[in-house]
Amino acid sequence: MRIGVVTFPGSLDDGDAARAARIAGADVVRLWHGDPDLHGVDAVVLPGGFSYGDYLRCGAIARFAPAMESIIDAARGGLPVLGICNGFQILCEAHLLPGALTRNQHLHFRNRDQWLRVEGTNTAWSNAFTAGQEVLIPVKNGEGCYVADERTLDALEAEGRVVARYIRGNPNGSQRDIAAITNEAGNVVGIMPHPEHAVEALTGPSLDGLGFFTSVLRALAGASAGANAGGHQ
Amino acid sequence: MARVVVDVMLKPEILDPQGQAVANALPRLGVDNVSSVRIGRRIEIEFAGAPDLDRAREIADKLLANPVIEDFTINVHEDAAAEVA
Description:
Strand order of the largest sheet of chain A: 2-1-3-4-11-10-9-6-7
Organism (chain B): Paractinoplanes pyxinae
GO molecular function (chain B): phosphoribosylformylglycinamidine synthase activity
Largest sheet of chain B: 3 strands, antiparallel
CATH superfamily of chain B: Phosphoribosylformylglycinamidine synthase subunit PurS
Strand order of the largest sheet of chain B: 2-1-3
Pfam families (chain B): PurS
Subunit structure (chain B): Part of the FGAM synthase complex composed of 1 PurL, 1 PurQ and 2 PurS subunits.
CATH class of chain B: Alpha Beta
Helix content of chain B: 25-40%
Structural class of chain B: alpha+beta
Oligomer: heterodimer
Subcellular location (chain B): Cytoplasm
Number of helices of chain B: 3
CATH topology of chain A: Rossmann fold
């Protein structure tokens, strides 16, 4: 399985995301923001950082990168896409996910290990978890406060599209403690904390982040098994 | 030269922590009669020819403002020098 990791000018965590995908067992393809060719990848990770210097709004300019135009089309067609931190902001700016990420309520940059409760496990990126599982993953953001109107928030909850919530303290004031959400189809997930920083004992607080990457490999293996079975009928 | 000015503001229902921080600092200046401060962004666009308001609106809607959290207004300023005065 080939997972593409996009590098924008100002991406910081593309290397870690690529490493995490590799540790999970994927072949990693590095994608460049200026190249609309997705090189046949089976899934895409939009990494954390400060694409285009966070100018205007976080993710606002990255959303118009040539690579993003292709990714937006492919995501609408079912391509699994995970946006981490700045990647989550880009997915919201691209309207692949509802709502927006705004300045942390207390205005401080927060950098700490954060407990989350995984709730929606029916997505391409969270199926390796059990619903209600608590995981420890680093969070580091200045603009991670998730906001959406009440109707959107209610719909996210009713449809089981809240993938993870902050527990034992909300680091940024996100509404309803939302840390990660998915689209209606479950192939696009945005998460503010950094699972790619929790994949090795040497550098991470846990190995809990690996589950997001093994999830997509499972989802892709299931999809291709289904496609093969279909082909033999 | 005519320029198009786009003002972008957070929607009223969206919390503006920057504005709150400024409001909270005002008592240190001896100001005690301000009830609210909200911070927005002003963008000046100069077109090569005549100002194109439809284009400006498209730019504002697609890029300059995020309609999920922000509103914008568009105005044409005919004389940039007059503004400074």
